[in-house]
Structures are given as structure tokens and as C-alpha cells.
Amino acid sequence: MNIENDSKWLFKYMPFNFNAVKLLTNNELWFGKPDIQNDPNEAEFILSAPEKVVGIHEFRIAIEDELEFLITRTNPDNRYLDGFEKLNYENHLKKTVRDCLGICSMTTKCNDILMWAHYADNNKGICVVFDKDILTNSLTMRSGKVAYSSRITNATFIKTGKSGQLISDRIFYMEKLDNWEYEGEFRFVKRYNDRISYHDVDRLESFPENTIVGIILGENFPKGDFKTLVNLAYLRNSKKEFYFWKSAKNLYKQSMDIIRISDEHVNIYMSQNHFPFQHILYEAKIELKQKKD
């Protein structure tokens, strides 16, 4: 099976580390807080006067003691603040909003040179290939392509009793500045109960086993880790069809070529004498059968 930038697939670049092992063995995705993402403007908004915001999205939050105190002290009548008062108020509000959001980022691109460098350990990592339909149907949350813009979302906040509404002119957690447009990001966003401490939130989400189609190896993926990766994939389900590809930079296209690895031509990419591809699959299936017996 050939793989390319296509609406049928979603791709997740990552280093080949313990987190990758957990993803592949447990079928779980991690949903990180917006403020630990690599974009410093993640889930960002500019607090504006109500009359300056054409609201299309409402984000309701519970107002706990710390935010309640701040609102009472600095903004008891929902007026528009400025100066240091606004900065202090805005920072507390943003922390409250971001603590109850989780983001899992993927992309629609598998051959971008910068993505391989930035997110896959400088081409030493992997790119996991997901079936888009299966994944989006199994994760019951907001998902979609990120919208890119030259400006930050405008929003205003209105307190009503023990809750409040952040009213924004765009969906601020599905937006990024257009500096990031090359990533072609597709993301999943989980809304957590804002009355539960973010320390107690379970940020792992399960997905069906048949969601992962295969794995693309970075151009500099360590040969010594290939056997481990193959066994990880096939010991999960030896009967399931699973694919491996290798990325290789194409200087003419200024992108990465994605080439299928198979029994017939694995020696082009890996040392056949080091660990024959077919032998790895055979040994993995034999080991699994012995465990069942």
C-alpha cells in the first residue's frame, strides 16, 4: 500500500521513545494542556470590550474562588479593564480556560521536511499513520483542521453568578497564527470538567486497535531499533495487516519521499544481514503462538 498526503489518513510525528511505545501498545493518545504545546500562542485570545467582539462561539466556565476573588476585586460590574488590572485579570482567566482543555495534534502531511525535523527527533523518529474515519468516529470530541489567521482571536468575558461566558469571534482553540500554516494541522480537542483540578484529570484517550495503519520511519531511524518497532507492532495483533514505510529526502522536490518497506526490498533501507525483515515477522508470530498455547 502506498501512502501520501491524503484526506484518508492522519499522521502523528514523534520521537521513538517510551511515549511512542505506550501509544503503540496501549492504543492511547495523550491530550496535553494548551500551555505545554510548542506554540506560545496556543488557545490564545485578546480580551476586548464587548462592543468590539462579534460573538460566534461561547465557552462557559465555572468561577472558582480564586477567579471569583479577582473578578470581585478588579471587575465587579463586567466593565472593560485596561493596564495592569486587565493583564492580571486576563492571565487568571486564560489559566482557568486552558486548565480544562486537552489538545492532541496530528497533521494531514507525511512528507514535510520541517515536520520530520521538528517533531520526529530530527528524522530519527517515526510518523504513525492513522485511519482518519476510524479515529474521528471513535473520539467523541471536537476535531478538525486548524484554521490559520494573521491575527489573534478577540473575546470578551461576562460573569453571570457562579459561572461565566467567554464569547469570542472565532473558536480560539481551533485557531493558530498563519506562521504555522505549513503544518497542515488536524487536531482533537477535549473539554474537561472545569470543577475538577487539572492535576486529577486523566488526559489519556483510548482508540480502537485497527485505527493505526502503519508507521513511517525517519530517514535516520536507528537500525538497531527496527526489530523492536516491528515486534511492537505485530505482537499486538499478528493477523492484522500492518505496513512500514521509510522516508528519504528528495532534494529536487524539497520534501520527503515515502517508500514502502517490504520483504522483497527491505535490504535497500535496512541491512538484510543484520535482521531479515521476513524473519522478524516470522519470529514475532511464532512467539505469540507459543504464548497462546
Structural write-up:
The protein has seven helices and 16 strands. The chain has a domain at 34-107 and 142-204. It has helices at residues 18-26, 65-74, 83-99, 113-119, 132-138, 226-236, 277-292; strands spanning 9-14, 28-30, 46-47, 57-62, 101-107, 126-131, 142-145, 147-149, 154-160, 163-168, 175-177, 185-191, 204-206, 212-217, 243-250, 255-261. The strands form five sheets. Strands 1-6-14-15-16 form a five-stranded mixed sheet. The chain is elongated and about 65 Å long. 26% of the residues lie in helices and 29% in strands. With 293 residues, it is of the alpha+beta class. Helix 2 (65-74) packs antiparallel against helix 3.
- How far is the first residue's CA from the last residue's CA? 33 Å
Which spans of ≥5 residues are poorly predicted at pLDDT below 50?
272-286
Oligomeric state of the chains?
single chain
SSE class: alpha+beta
Instruction: Classify the beta-strand content into a percent band.
Output: 25-35%
Rounded mean pLDDT is 82
Number of strands: 16
Query: Which shape, going by the Cα principal axes?
Result: elongated
What's the helical proportion of residues?
A: 25-40%
Number of helices: 7
Q: What is the topology, as strand order, of the major beta sheet?
A: 1-6-14-15-16
Largest sheet: 5 strands, mixed
